[in-house]
Amino acid sequence: MEFIGFQDNITGSIFLMVVTVVLLMLSAMMSSSEVAFFSLSPADIRGLKQRNSLAAESVLKLLSKSDSLLATILVVNNLVNISIVVCSSMVIDNLFKFNNTTLEFLFTGVLVTFLLLLFGEILPKIVAQNMNVRIALTFAQPLSLLRWIFYPLSFVLIRTCGRIEKIASPNTDNISIEELADAVDMTTEENSEEQKILSGIVGIASREVEDIMRPRMDIKAVEQTITFTELKRVITETGHSRLPVYDEDLDHIKGVIFVKDLLEHISKGDDFGWQRLIREPSFVPMHKKVNAILEDFQSHKVHMAIVVDEYGATQGLISLEDILEEVVGEISDESDIDESFYRRLNENTYIFEGKTHIIDMVRVLGLDDDTFEDVEGRAETIAGLMLEINRNFLKKGEEVEAHNIRFIVDAMEGHRIDKVKIIVRNNE
Questions:
Q1: Is the pLDDT of residue 131 over 90?
Q2: Which residues constitute the domain of residue 222?
Q3: Are 342 and 355 in contact (CB under 8 A)?
């Protein structure tokens, strides 16, 4: 390698050096602008909106079309970097004579790459991270001009990238329930409450109405022939804002009465025909998915539906509150009665309501969720579990046992097991 000097072409070399420096400054402007504009926080943007300046308006206008802004920055930056490489190579050719082509390529490549990375990328981006608002305001108007100049090229770039993205990833929006469930399981224990809610949302998609509905025996309803005074008494006792109305029995639901519809008539007597305020009921099959019920509630603007089987017989009731409780847990309001579904008599003895879900029982007893999996069959409640184990109806005082747990019928309500005494036997 031989140094030539400036005397051979001093004017041309100086001109190329000046052009290279200007191009490096332009490259630094593009790199710092990219970081500055796309690191503005919501607080920074609110501050810009409060400024009455042309620069602030330009920043907000550029951010409103961020894809066009980014395309302009990338196009200009790449054109500038290519120009820097060309000019630097010409300067080096004027100053040095290389006897080896490989050595010339390595020298030029290392020097130009160093200059570009240091002055065109690294330093500008470091500065932009700490002065993003100031830099955005400084370069907003020059970038607006550049965006107008390079709009045709930027437009083609944006449209091409959009088409490629659609072709390469046509199903990016179709995330399966299994994939979503796996993602929830990967969350850390530090966000256990969020994980519980997300798990509830994911679980809703695979559950059927019969899994979370209020069973028929727990439906609070009124017969359409009762007087207005009796209706007000039932409303006061139940505390519900909506009550199903039936004719003869629950298999003949005629509609739903809304308490808010009765407020303006509250002072009227038994001669008031409250039945004319009954609204049309909504019916859903018991095997319908819960997420589909949510869509029905939204489209029909209802909060409650009667659950029926394939023969049209009433099996239960489902409300929007029931669905939400599956996601966020028990929701209590001022009308709810604060009573637990179990009482602990001593260390190993409990009294449970027969309608208590099996999963709630095993949680209280500290057992594994699948403890009774081999004997529960299709049962969901303690009473149903006892019937599955015994394979026959039980009377008060009778008992069954499974996995060292004794279930004793403590109280009956007709043919229904109302209270169950549970004794946990110590493993011997």
A1: no
A2: 209-328
A3: no
Q: Residues 116, 27: contact at Cβ < 8 Å?
A: yes
* 364, 298: one domain: no
Whether residue 388 is found in the same domain as residue 420: yes
Q: What is the mean pLDDT of the chain?
A: 79
Residue 2 pairs in a beta bridge with: 97
Q: Using the Cα atoms of residue 23, residue 28, residue 31 and residue 34 in order, give the sign of their dihedral.
A: negative
Question: Which band of pLDDT confidence, cut at 50, 70 and 90, is reported for residue 5?
Answer: very low
Indicate if the pLDDT at residue 331 is higher than 60. no
Tell me the three state secondary structure of residue 133.
helix
CA-to-CA dists, residue 147 to 29, 54, 111, 154, angstroms:
14, 17, 31, 8
In a domain, 335, yes or no: no
Phi-psi label, residue 391: left if phi above 0, alpha if psi -120 to 50, beta otherwise:
left
Judge whether 39 and 133 are in contact, CB under 8 Å. Answer: no
Q: Which residues in 162-199 are b (16+ Cβ under 10 Å) and which e? A: eeeeeeeeeeeeeeeeeeebeebeeeeeeeeeebeebe
Is 376 exposed, middle or buried, given 0-12, 13-18 or 19+ CB atoms closer than 10 A?
A: middle
- How far is it, in rounded angstroms, from Cα 320 to Cα 25? 61
Residues 364 and 406 in one domain: yes
In terms of Cα–Cα distance, which of 273, 282, 230 is closest to 254?
A: 282
User: What is the per-residue pLDDT across 56-105, written as a single tens digit (0 to 9) for each?
Assistant: 888 888 888 878 888 888 888 888 878 877 777 777 777 666 666 666 66
More confident residue, 240 or 257: 257
Residues 246, 143, single domain; the answer is no
Helix (H, G, I), strand (E, B) or coil at 346: strand
- Residues with Cβ within 8 Å of 361's Cβ and at least 6 positions away in sequence, in order, are 342, 352, 382, 422
250's enclosing H/E stretch is strand 249-258
* DSSP single-letter state for residue 357: B
Pull the structure tokens for residue 342.
């179990």
Tell me: do 61 and 99 sit in the same domain. Answer: yes
Structure token digits, residue 238 = 């139940």
pLDDT tens per residue across span 381-420: 899 999 999 888 888 999 999 988 999 999 988 888 989 9
For residue 138, CA distances in Å to 32, 54, 61, 72, 239 come to 11, 11, 14, 17, 64
